[in-house]
Amino acid sequence: MARGGTRSADDWVDAAYERFDAGGLGAVKVEAVARDLGTTKGSFYWHFADRPALVRAVTVRWEARETDRFIARAERPGGSPQERLARLFSEVAERNRVRDGEAALYREAEAEGVADIVRRVSERRVAYLAELIGALGIEVGEARRRAVASLAMVLGMQQLAHVRYEAHVDEAALTATALAMATSGVVAS
Amino acid sequence: MARGGTRSADDWVDAAYERFDAGGLGAVKVEAVARDLGTTKGSFYWHFADRPALVRAVTVRWEARETDRFIARAERPGGSPQERLARLFSEVAERNRVRDGEAALYREAEAEGVADIVRRVSERRVAYLAELIGALGIEVGEARRRAVASLAMVLGMQQLAHVRYEAHVDEAALTATALAMATSGVVAS
DNA sequence: ACCTGAACACCGTTCAAGT
DNA sequence: ACCTGAACACCGTTCAAGT
Fold first, then answer.
1. Residue A122: which of B122, B163, B189 has the nearest Cβ?
2. Nearest CA to CA, how far is B137 from chain A (Å)?
3. Looking at residue B165, what DSSP letter applies?
4. CA A151: distance to chain centroid?
5. What is the largest distance, in Å, between two alpha-carbon atoms of chain B?
6. How far, in Å, CA of A156 to CA of B157, rounded?
7. Interatomic CA distance for residues A173 and A183, integer angstroms
8. How far A104 CA sits from the closest chain B CA (Å)?
9. Cβ pair B129, B151 in contact under 8 A
């Protein structure tokens, strides 16, 4: 909102979200956001109980957007389950390259008190993956195990990327590996 | 060291390491460690340039211990490569349950400026895994790809555990999955 | 050579006082 | 109803002064 005017809680979340996008939840600082908004941090406490409340609002917004993207992906027509899985993994691999706020989320979730939200998103991802794998004719329990294992591998690759461990495994190999885990099923029951 | 006496840099690292063990690198706070040692934080700056130097010393110590454990494992006689791999993965799965300082390391490494050390440890883990897989008669490039993929999956499961996402996949299943990835080779090249 | 104590910066939080 | 400004706590950092 314009300097000098009055602000809503939403304006605070907008400004905080920009900082989150750039630097993760750790960059969501009351004083800094107040500066961005051209107001004082004292005014922040009119709208929110404390910093954790703001961090939580930002994460909830991230969850909503993540869900939208999920639905958009699922709704998009075209293709066998295999093709959809391939599309999904290749999008994930591509986003892996960008070190944005989301990339930091799993790392920061616990310290910032939003582990529950990240857990919820994880469950959605697993459910969606399991659904696609199930569409290949795989039994439901096995489909879930494969979904968890391939999600875990993708998250692990993200972590290795965080410490800049390249491991000579590129985007294409990551995509192929995740797809192979999902479709050819290496997961023991 | 006893209160009132004089302290060495090592004493500071000892005390800081205890805090790391309990709460990760984030718990390594100059003021708190000074309190533990019964001295003032001002005195800290005689021994160290700043907090990052202390954090780095703690991580270097962690690396040394991690290496020791690695060597101990590798040297331990007995068993085919398969048996050693199984032992390795089951130990990792077991440690996954404990939420200690190490569990937080990958998350915090970048923010704390010790990504290089964690990267080095990752490379050792991959090299060791690749060596065992290579002993199964697998070609060297393929062995490395399998090593990276199985390490990534284990790290990813750790992350999911951090947000307490259980996913109905237990320790035994994790072990079996990692082993299957390493030995039966789902990784596309 | 090693430490204390006071000072400052930065950020989260509270609150009396203003509009 | 919403905000300012000052205050305090906590922690990292510096430094003059002490032993």
1. B163
2. 19
3. -
4. 12
5. 62
6. 8
7. 15
8. 8
9. yes
